[in-house]
Structure formats: C-alpha cells, structure tokens
Write a structure and sequence with these properties.
There is one protein chain. Helices cover 43% and strands 22% of the residues. The chain contains five helices and two strands. It has a two-stranded antiparallel ribbon. Helix 4 runs antiparallel to helix 5. The protein starts with a helix and ends with a helix.
Amino acid sequence: MTRLSQLGIEPAAIAQAVVGVAYQRLLPTADGNLTALLDLVSGPISKWQQTAEMTPQWEENLKHARYSNQISAAVYERFKAG
C-alpha cells in the first residue's frame, strides 16, 4: 500500500481496488529443491493494512512442511516470521 501511495494513487482508490495481498517465499526443501509458501490476506484494507505479521495459516503451513520432512528444522526457524 505504501508503494501505491508513493506513486500518487489516492487512498480511496486503493481501498476500492485492492481486495487482498499475497506474500510468497521460496523455501529450500530437504531434497535440495525449492518450494513456494504463500500467505494471503483479504477483506477491507483497514483490517490488515498496518500489520507486519504473518497470518496463523502461514505458521500452520510451515509446520506442516516441517513435520512432513519437506523442510529442515533450520529452514522452519528461519522462515517462521516470514
């Protein structure tokens, strides 16, 4: 949102047009490849615009990848905050 404001887009236009944000990280897997992990938020911008935290779903998905041995404990620790 900050970048859109810096480009001169009015806050009202941003609020009307943006319905969600996706955050993606590429994680190294246990077999030496990379996999993508996504975090999604949606709904009114005022509900999520000022937060810098990951959603509970991010940690749940990351834990699943760890406990199914898709990623190492070190990768889990490195990426648990995003």
